[in-house]
Amino acid sequence: xxxxxxxxxxxxxxxxxxxxxxxxxxxxxxxxxxxxxxxxxxxxxxxxxxxxxxxxxxxxxxxxxxxxxxxxxxxxxxxxxxxxxxxxxxxxxxxxxxxxxxxxxxxxxxxxxxxxxxxxxxxxxxxxxxxxxxxxxxxxxxxxxxxxxxxxxxxxxxxxxxxxxxxxxxxxxxxxxxxxxxxxxxxxxxxxxxxxxxxxxxxxxxxxxxxxxxxxxxxxxxxxxxxxxxxxxxxxxxxxx
Length: 241
Ligand SMILES: [Zn+2]
Prior knowledge:
By secondary structure, this protein is of the alpha/beta class. It has a single domain (9-240), classed as Carbonic anhydrase (Beta-carbonic Anhydrase, Chain A). 44% of the residues lie in helices and 12% in strands. It has nine helices and five strands, in the order αααβαβαβααααββ. It has helices at residues 14-27, 50-65, 74-80, 101-104, 124-136, 151-162, 171-185, 191-209, 213-219, and strands spanning 89-93, 112-116, 141-147, 224-230, 237-240. The protein has a five-stranded mixed β-sheet. Helix 6 (151-162) packs across helix 7 and helix 7 (171-185) crosses helix 8 (191-209). The longest helix is centred in the C-terminal third of the chain and has 19 residues, at 191-209. The structure holds zinc ion. Zinc ion binds next to helix 6.
């Protein structure tokens, strides 16, 4: 019987490890040297800087919102991606069925590494997943994506303000989103809208500060973490500070 791999990296073939390291360097916008064998990169178009990646996301969102999404050849992409993946962006999105990051940014398979949970907050497993994208797939652009009328945030407000008792494991969402509700309470305006924004900001900050992997990349400006709020009616994503 084979020995159990000790780490994720141990499970990768040697040439795959080399590719992952190479893609990691290239994806942060460093010069793409001729020695990087493009044949080893499943999607060469994904080896771009974080600024170019964000521009690509927002341009894709504009196409989606205006009903001009592109036609994607999923079959051809599937074949190219059998050997690996190099997504240019990672999205921490709400699980809400009305949002689909791949559609919202008019992207194809292999482009986005998506982690979803109701309320788009950083959980232990979600963080581990995003660290995997940064460490092993070379992804350097992260977006925390909330949306208007978020039921998870609204549920947290109901529980905190009205004492609503939520069944099952749903209170764990309240616990995670509660701090953002607290920050929103200090602001004027619509509590739900403010809580949604604070929740995005807080979780983006959490990712930037998360040690050891993400904080190190953020400190050297290799990692870019942005926040966005998706509008259910228009389909447009607004970037927020
Ligand atoms: Zn939601």
